[in-house]
Design brief:
This protein has 524 residues and is an alpha+beta fold. The chain has 17 helices and 13 strands. The protein has a domain of 211 residues. Strands 6-7-8-9 form a 4-stranded antiparallel beta sheet, with no helix packed on it. It has a 3-stranded antiparallel beta sheet with strand order 5-4-10. Strands 1-2 form a two-stranded antiparallel ribbon. Strand 6 and strand 7 form a beta hairpin.
């Protein structure tokens, strides 16, 4: 069938074909002037990234909700725990399961001496947990975060592989080089879009305290993306949401306008409420400034400027407005009470609606962003937390794949070269890096809304075989092997102290002397 036609009254009255989609109709009144750019991923972002990034940082510095939201993301995605659980691929390596487990335990012990000290930080200030939080916040705030592995052997230190965290502003093209087919804001790409090298400024362009002052801003070096053996020379952490995207964008990009307008509206309401709260009443009088000054005893009218006297007396009169005070009213004067309509009754509802839109743009529930569960019940709170946890789990996987795994591979390359991981040699490791460096990372637990129900649910899952003790412990940020070993030590100590029943092997509940005598009397 032929498509239907409509006729519009024009000069030549020719029929115009109706658009199949309203979204593509150029004559649609509500979208008549809407013609967004049709650029590539880099073409849309890179020309505007230099302005989006400082705006994002300013928002995180000066907006309490944005700053708190960033802290919430860090607390829930990483938190206070970062633990390695090595999982070498025994089948690919041709190992027995027991041999793989023993090698994994030794690897975890060696890595613990690296990750839980400042030996992993080129600045020697943070451990791996601190560097991970810094990379995560940098990627959210600036759009991307950069870490450069450095070899820094120091006396008295066990490891030499360290990481220098570089802010996104230092990643740039060579001086005087504009973006082109190969250089994309500091990332040099090949014909497939893969990163070949990175351009790093020696100093942040906004730093005033460089070693050489302003000259440092133009010092620049190019670093290959990988070593000849395939290990990363630069770790570039950013969220790639379009094909061909070379740089990342801040997490506030889609909601920055709403954040700014909501902040300005909140500030205006607060300032207005404060200004109106300082006014108690208005005084109207038919007296002239000279008569008013004489009434208040300010001297002869001609002694001073009448306007200055009038203002001084009014200031004095305002100072007398105190609790239980008797206010003198001049002849012909009238006092009008001041009743401002502040706070605005619609303020809370409007701000809540706006913040709900912002929370959706951040992919987290409103209750989690505002930390406000006062208007929700248990089921709704549980649903909100599950939705938030789904997003947090996705960000954890992204962080593991693009940050923690490269760190682990680089550290393992040094550990094997130093013969600290058994008999594995460097050629063996580099030939099958995935099998050796396969691991599970444990972050801080998500916590429990109702501990009793959550514990019962965990037991049911393990009894049905749909979960394991390792999974349940990882959900709470603990290691299952450490838990079992600690429980075994506690039970041995309880048995030594006589706190375990010899027949049921359960803890003995101590009773008082009166209760013991009553039990003996009852038993005859």
């Amino acid at each position: 069938m032929a498509k239907p036609h409509i006729r519009l009254k024009t000069n030549n009255t020719l029929p115009l074909q109706a658009a199949a989609y309203t979204a593509g109709d150029p004559a649609e009144r509500t979208m008549r002037n809407w013609y967004p750019t049709n650029g590539s991923a880099d073409g849309d972002l890179l020309p505007e990234l230099g302005l989006i990034r400082p705006r994002s940082r300013d928002m995180f510095r000066n907006n309490g909700i944005a700053s708190g939201g960033l802290q919430t993301l860090g607390d829930n995605i990483v938190g206070s725990v970062l633990r390695l659980s090595a999982k070498p691929h025994a089948r690919l390596l041709g190992w027995e399961e027991d041999d793989a487990e023993e090698w994994a335990n030794g690897t975890e012990a060696q890595f613990d001496s690296y990750a839980n000290t400042t030996e992993c930080d080129a600045a020697r200030r943070d451990n791996l947990l601190g560097l991970t939080l810094l990379m995560l916040r940098g990627s959210f705030m600036n759009g991307d975060a950069i870490a450069i592995p450095e070899w820094q052997p120091l006396p008295g230190h066990r490891w030499a592989t360290r990481f220098q965290i570089v802010e996104a502003d230092r990643l740039c093209n060579p001086p005087g080089q504009a973006n082109n087919a190969y250089w994309r804001e500091g990332v040099r790409v090949d014909e497939f879009g893969a990163a070949v090298s990175y351009g790093i400024r020696r100093q942040h362009p906004g730093d005033r305290y460089g070693l050489m002052g302003a000259l440092d801003r133009f010092q620049w070096r190019e670093i290959p993306a990988f070593t000849p053996h395939g290990l990363p020379r630069v770790i570039h952490l950013y969220d790639k949401d379009r094909a061909g995207l070379s740089r990342g964008k801040p997490i506030l990009s889609s909601v920055m306008k709403e954040f700014r307008l909501a902040g300005k509206y909140s500030d205006a309401e607060l300032e207005t409420a404060l200004a109106t709260a300082m006014v108690a009443a208005f005084l109207e009088s038919d007296l002239s400034p000279e008569a008013a000054s004489a009434l208040f005893g300010a001297g002869a009218p001609g002694d001073k400027n009448p306007d200055d006297v009038w203002r001084a007396q009014l200031n004095g009169f305002q100072a007398q407005l105190q609790g239980s005070a008797i206010i003198p009213i001049p002849t012909g004067g009238r006092v009008h009470a001041f009743s401002p309509n502040r706070p605005n009754n619609a303020f809370d509802a409007f701000m809540e609606s706006t913040l709900r839109h912002i929370a959706v743009g951040w992919n987290i529930p409103y209750e989690v962003l505002l930390k406000d569960f006062s208007k929700t019940n248990y089921s709704s709170a549980r649903a909100a937390l599950l939705e938030a946890w789904r997003y947090f789990k996705g960000r954890q996987r992204w962080l593991k794949d693009h940050w923690l795994r490269p760190v682990y591979e680089l550290w393992m390359d040094e550990a094997i070269a130093r013969r600290r991981l058994g008999r594995v040699t460097t050629p063996e490791y580099r030939a099958d890096r995935y099998a050796y460096s396969r691991a599970r990372w444990v972050f801080a637990g998500r916590g429990w809304v109702d501990p009793v129900k959550e514990a019962q649910a965990a037991r049911i899952r393990m009894d049905l075989g749909i979960s394991t003790l390792e999974d349940e412990c990882a959900e709470q940020g603990t290691d299952w092997e450490e838990q079992l070993k600690q429980r075994a030590r506690e039970r041995r100590r309880m048995q030594e102290e006589g706190l375990l029943d010899a027949y049921s092997n359960t803890p003995v509940i101590p009773v008082s002397g009166d209760e013991a005598r009553n039990q003996e009397a009852a038993n005859g």
